[in-house]
Amino acid sequence: MSEICCHVPAGAGAEGKGADCQDGSRAARRRRMEIRRHRLVAERGAEETSRKRRKLEEEPSSTDEEEIEPAKYGVTSVCGRRRDMEDSVSLRPEFLPGHHFFGVFDGHGCSHVATSCGERMHEIVADEARSSGSDDAERWTGVMERSFARMDAEAVGSRSRASGAEAAPNCRCELQLPKCDHVGSTAVVAVVGPRHLIVANCGDSRAVICRGGAAIPLSSDHKPDRPDELERIQAAGGRVIFWDGARVFGVLAMSRAIGDSYLKPFVIPDPEVRVLERKDGEDEFLILASDGLWDVVSNEVACHVVRSCVRSKAKRRGGRSSPTSNLSPRQSSGSGSSSGDEAQNESGGCAAGAGSESDDEEVDEACAEAAILLTKLAIARQSPDNVSVVVVNLRRRPRF
Questions:
Q1: What DSSP letter does each residue of 331-373 carry, written as one string?
Q2: With a threshold of 0.85, does the pTM exceed it?
Q3: pLDDT tens track for 76-85
């Protein structure tokens, strides 16, 4: 059997083997670099996916807790049977992220303290809220108490440093005194947040919420003959004299107010604060009003009027015009007001405004209509005082 031999030159075999090794090492290196590149891309993709997943996991809880709802409200303010308009209304949507501020201030003696409260109270509350950390009830109670104390100090201090017309050229005080210490104002303030409703009251204005169809007062009028207030005034050495109703020293018909430095320490600016957790599906609306309304209209009647307006407006869906259409441009601020300030007509007309959210436009118009009807009802029932009403819709949008 013959052998088959294959002869390969020595030089050629070594050279071919070296070339094959070099090609193999290059290919292996390329494969390793490709694998490494894919691994880096995969790791970065996994990290990005993990980061996005964590963000998505965090965002639903934060939006659930701090979902920003647009402010939806209606407001009227009428001089009524008084000679001068001494009420002031403050509407400040988004004065803090996700929080809306509403306030009604009923002045007495003159309007400048109520006006100062309307211009400054929300700024003070925002400043105090930013300096606090948590969002619990204790925090908001402290915020409101400090805010009312600061507002009172500003109201008293500004007048004690001023001299008549130089300090307040638009002031309507009958006695232009260097120290105008006989002027004050009540204050009822509401902060509508994503989780809580905070109400602070000082004086005889009032806040009422409609929850589950029931009218629930969120404040108690500070009248001098209220048992705890009477005891406090007498303990401080004061007296309550019944002269056309209970009055501190026969003068002031309320036991708490901002200003009124001549009646301190019997009349104090300390607010009573209530913090409620919002309940979706139960909270319907909030009413803030001066005593010009509450002296002649009960809580239940006021809530019934507002609920009727909301229901009828939802049924009509724009079929008929609302009472705001009969107001002149000067009397009505209309919808979509950026500042939220309420223009007051001192000649006895009413000023009205409504929230500007288009998806819930019929509800906002219903709030404005309800505020106007409540004001008309108070005047029809012979209310002798200025009447200011704010109706805030507390219904949330359904979340899907």
A1: TEEEE--SS-PPPP-TTS-EEEEE---STTHHHHHHHHHHHHH
A2: no
A3: 999 998 989 9
